[in-house]
């Protein structure tokens, strides 16, 4: 009996893992999914106001929705520091806009594009990416 339960548990774990990976296609909408993870590719940059200035046209940003349901994390390529816990509001049917967006600091995301111009403590992150 213990062996059957163990086998069943392993099978359920495998099915759950397969569903988790298959549910994150390029057609997934970051607005309407409880779980979202997607990679956006394009130009990314970072400037810390001092000696660090990183810029590339072949970068990427891995976006994940965290448990709160309104906050997202942004993991940049090219040794650019991550942005974590950014809170969003839904705008329209399929677009998220960062809470507190201004003309000089915003993050906008949908299922196809990611646009970032984010400034904090003299540091600036930018991204113009698609998936």
Characterize the biggest β-sheet: 8 strands, antiparallel, barrel
Structural class: alpha+beta
Query: Segments where pLDDT lies below 50 for 5+ residues?
Result: 18-27
* Cross-sheet strand order for the largest sheet: 1-2-3-4-5-6-7-8
Number of helices: 1
3D shape = globular
Give the mean pLDDT.
81
Regarding quaternary structure, what we see is single chain
Strand residue percentage: over 45%
Query: Based on DSSP secondary structure assignment, what is the total number of beta strands?
Result: 8
Rg, nearest Å = 18 Å
* Portion in helices: 10-25%
- The sequence of SSEs as H and E is HEEEEEEEE
Distance between the termini: 47 Å
What does this structure look like?
This protein is α+β, with helices and mostly antiparallel strands and 131 residues long. The protein has a domain of 90 residues. The chain is built from 1 helix and 8 strands, in the order αββββββββ. An 8-stranded antiparallel barrel has the order 1-2-3-4-5-6-7-8. Strand 2 and strand 3 form a beta hairpin. The longest helix has 21 residues. The protein is globular, with a radius of gyration of 18 Å. The protein starts with a helix and ends with a strand. About 8% of the residues have low confidence.
């Amino acid at each position: 009996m213990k062996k059957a339960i163990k086998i069943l548990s392993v099978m359920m774990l495998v099915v759950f893992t397969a569903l988790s990976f298959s549910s994150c296609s390029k057609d997934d909408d970051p607005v309407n999914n409880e779980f979202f993870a997607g990679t956006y590719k394009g130009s990314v940059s970072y400037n810390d106001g001092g000696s660090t200035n990183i810029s590339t046209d072949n970068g990427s940003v891995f976006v994940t929705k965290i448990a709160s349901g309104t906050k997202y994390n942004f993991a940049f390529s090219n040794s650019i520091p991550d942005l974590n816990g950014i809170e969003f509001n839904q705008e329209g049917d399929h677009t998220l806009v960062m809470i507190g967006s201004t003309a000089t600091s915003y993050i906008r995301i949908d299922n196809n594009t990611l646009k970032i111009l984010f400034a904090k403590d003299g540091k600036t992150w930018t991204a113009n990416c698609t998936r």
